[in-house]
Amino acid sequence: MRVLIVGAGIAGLSLARALELRGIIPDVAERQPTWNAGGTGLFLPGNASRAFTQLGLFPEIARVAMPIHYQRFLSRTGKELSAINTASFWDVCGPCLAMSRAEMHSILRNGLKQTSVAMFRSVSHIQSSSDSCDVTFADGTTNRYDLAVGADGVRSRVRDFAFPHVKPAYAGYICWRFLTENTVGADSWTAMIGKRQTLLAIPVSPSRVYVYADRSVSLDEARQYSDRTSLERHFTGFAGALVPLVKNLHPETEVHFSHIETVPSGTWRRDRIVLIGDAAHASSPSMAQGAGLACEDALLLAEVVSESSSIDEALSVFVQRCEARVAWVQKQCLARDRMRTLPAFVSSQILRYLGKSLYEKSYLPLLAPI
């Protein structure tokens, strides 16, 4: 079976590894000229840990990742609203972990034993039929594949070929992400919640912390912000706890700014083209399911195409088994994102009295394997 994977991010590399484990060596094309995972972090809930365990990569991940035993929600003044014992809740799946994105990419790349990744190789056209995909690359070369997989993220070129009408949608807020020294002694996933603003810190090593800050603004307003925006100025209403992470931000810190965008699920497969990860169903980060769903997609797709006698049947099974899980995650993300627009005193009371039950309800379906 000839398989092309377009994109060498978490979804693409996870799929390449999963296929290798089943005796299928894919071609992988990455449009970027060099490896650059960016100076940001990852939070892996228990279902993500389970998925990477199934890929056979958990020992390598556990050696560099930080275990996260609690998720704490604080008011914008630093008062604790709720604390979720994540270690207990996710016990049947695996631990919650945090690590740098660069370390995850390195582990995934090193996990490929036979597959090579063609860097700076982009796809200029895909012609899909009921039994194959004819792929034209930017350098003019062509190849025929039994299956072409779009694992190329929220701005997927493969999705443009298969579903030109499906475009990413602005989720209503912008964010800044960076890694910095853990000067505040953060020892758990800790989020400060303000009106239309969130400041989150997660330790990714004994000395470093991943910081995520967001702000709800209209799309027109969003254009005035960038990676050079003064975060201290925009979080003046916050006090205590995590504030020094943005107040004393070193000028050389690599800050990544972006608009949060989503992709509606349900448009994953056309003939012999299939999408996985953010290309198929990008969601807001409020459920922290990007990496977990990407790896689950990869494992499931590798399973069905290697065990079925028909690729068409395999792809139908893949989509059917993914639908409900992804729809649930996107529904929970939407509910959480709506809560950010509530007055601060209302969201604080919800988190104080219902935080634990809402957390358990939103993640409960993910305790079961896909």
Overall 3D shape: globular
Average pLDDT over all residues? 96
The low-confidence runs, each spanning 5 or more residues with pLDDT under 50, are none
Using only C-alpha atoms, the radius of gyration works out to 20 Å
Q: How big a fraction of the residues is strand? A: 25-35%
- CA-CA gap between termini: 24 Å
CATH superfamily of the domain at 3-64 and 101-168 and 262-341: FAD/NAD(P)-binding domain
**How can the largest sheet be summarized?**
7 strands, mixed
Number of strands: 19
CATH class category name of the domain at 3-64 and 101-168 and 262-341:
Alpha Beta
- The helix count comes to 13
| Residues in helices, as a percent range | 25-40%
**Helix-strand makeup class:** alpha/beta
| Strand line-up of the largest beta sheet | 6-5-14-15-16-13-17
